[in-house]
Amino acid sequence: MNKSQLQHLLRNKYFYTLVLFGLWMIFFDQNRLTNQFKLHSNLSDLNSRKAYYTEEIKAQTAISRALTNDTVMLEKLAREKYLMKRSNEVIYVIVEE
Fold first, then answer.
1. Could you state, in order of their start, the residue ranges of all structural domains in the chain?
2. 68-89: per-residue pLDDT in tens?
3. What's the whole-model pTM score?
């Protein structure tokens, strides 16, 4: 761009209108650039949470199916997690500090 083209551009009212519009959109508008970055980071965070919870739902669904079909696994879960016992057993719980 040579000097005469630059002078012609600086005299053009549409150039100033475009610059003012750009500044308004970047700094002063409700959808300004900083808000767009915040929304984008929030969206990526929500998408990662969605992926995590989708995997957790799949895992819990598989465990639930296994527990409804397999009585041995159901008994193992009841003994380990809920400390249930049979009537003729004694359970000792060792808690590590």
1. 1-30, 42-85
2. 888 888 888 888 888 888 888 8
3. 0.56
